[in-house]
Amino acid sequence: MNWGLIGASTIAAGHMISAIRSCAGNQIISVLSANAERGAEYAKTHDIRSSTTDLEAMLADPNLDAVYISTTNEKHKFQALAAIAAGKHVLCEKPLAMSCADALEMVNAAEEAGVVLATNHHLRNAGSHLKIKELIDAGRIGNVQAVRVFHAVYLPESLQGWRINSAAAGGGVIPDIVVHDADTVGFHLGEYPLEVTAIEASGSLGQGVEDSVMSVWKMPSGILVQTHEGFTLRHAETGLEFHGTKGSIIAKNVMTQQPIGQVELRTADGVEEIKFSDHNLYARSIDHFMGAVAGQGQPAATGRDGVRSLAVAAAVKQAATTGTRVAVNYGGL
To answer: Would the pLDDT of 12 be above 80?
Structure first.
């Protein structure tokens, strides 16, 4: 497949370019940047054939098969809809859009056009998380009763910018990290929250947007989920815990872009260290995306998955802002 990068981004440079090229025959033939000089330098650095500031011109290339979108959040909808209208397959960074209604519009447009729209939720591609899901599905901890998620980190200076000071661009820890946790918990449990409560804070890094949030979710099965996301903690571990009637899964340092971390299964028989694959998360995402394009299965995270995670984040934001318990609106999905 021939790919175009919509956004000369850090995540593309650090993870996605190599992931796309890891599949034999894939080429990246163009990159779009709002800044012509930056785009040209980016293309040169990453051995990409051409750069442009013109989305329409990029999408008019008949040799282009698919695009990867990693621009700021407010641009996703327009760029994805343009790519879909041009008959291109779309892998889009989370969150899919600024609202669930916009994300649903993207999903419906892709389905009508017969192209693949996927959300680049990387965590569900990790060997650690695939193993955790396998343990839960096999009943190793019995019926899940509670989940705790620890995803408060220190946002590197290189990634701060709009994420800590621009609500208009989709900044804030809720659209940046809560969507990941919503997708990950939903992936493991096979269900998404009915309602949420939350409290947010800002000021340490956030300038007009939240930089820390804690929330509690109630799942349809009655499972309670407790989460903590943040941009401000320099020395905290990430992880998640699943507690069931027969045991617990304790996973540390697995809320990451790297195939690292530790997973323990704790039961009446003791503590068992669980081994898992250390494959590249993003390469697996690309592999599944290409399989979906070929009519063989689905992307690792579909557009509909992206709508669901966005719906949870939107409800967490509303709950934190209003101080009320909020029902999650999935827009009819």
So the answer is: yes
Is the sign of the CA dihedral 293, 295, 300, 303 positive or negative?
A: positive
To which residue do tokens 């163009």 refer?
30
Residue 36 — very low, low, confident or very high, per pLDDT cuts 50/70/90? very high
Residue 314 predicted with pLDDT over 90: yes
Q: Which residues pair with 52 in a beta bridge?
A: 32
User: Which whole-number Å values give the CA distances from 100 to 3, 114, 198, 319, 321, in the listed order?
Assistant: 27, 21, 19, 16, 18
Select from 122, 144, 178 the last residue of a domain: 122
Rounded Cα–Cα distance for residues 76 and 89 (Å): 14
User: Does the residue 96 lie in any domain?
Assistant: yes
Nearest 5°: phi and psi at 171? -75, 170
Distance CA 296, CA 192 (A): 26
Report the CATH number that the domain containing residue 38 is assigned in CATH.
3.40.50.720
317 and 194 inside one domain: yes
**What HEC string does 45-94 produce?**
HCCCCEEECCHHHHHCCCCCCEEEECCCHHHHHHHHHHHHHCCCEEEECC
| pTM score over 0.90 | yes
